[in-house]
Specification:
This protein is α/β, with parallel strands linked by helices and 160 residues long. 38% of the residues lie in helices and 26% in strands. The strands form two sheets. It has a seven-stranded mixed beta sheet with strand order 3-2-4-1-5-8-9, sandwiched between helices. The chain has a two-stranded antiparallel sheet with strand order 6-7. The longest helix has 12 residues, at 122-133.
Length: 160
Amino acid sequence: MIKLLRIDHRLIHGQVAVFWVSHTLADTIVVASDKYANDQLMHMTLNLGKPKNTVLVILSTSDTISYLNDAQNARKSILLVTGTTAEALKLAKNCDITDVNLGAMPSADGRKKIGMQFFLNEAEMEDIKSIHSLGKNIYLQATTSDKKLLYNDILSIWNK
């Protein structure tokens, strides 16, 4: 069961390993990344950041969809992490995902600040709107103790 889809360009780091794994009671972290699916150095790096008793699976977006829709994985408690809104949209369209957490996206030219660590460009905002139109619960929350910024609030900030 997918407990949460988190969009965070950093993928696995302290906030994910410490807060989100325990908050979701995940026993498995699935990283969906077309960029890093076949990067063995990144696999080793991400493995260093995961909690000890947690399984880490790193797959391409299409392989992640197959993995998540495989009945053999239905009993796992999965924290799903991806680094892009485009990959998140593909996952949201093809998997049973309820909650989408916006964690962190970097500041750059052409990106608008939505939250403390979250910046979006127009294409990424369109992805977020599309995910929301699928009926997913979208919110921005860096750590579990932070107040959630709900979709309508995100949209209001975007439209300012």
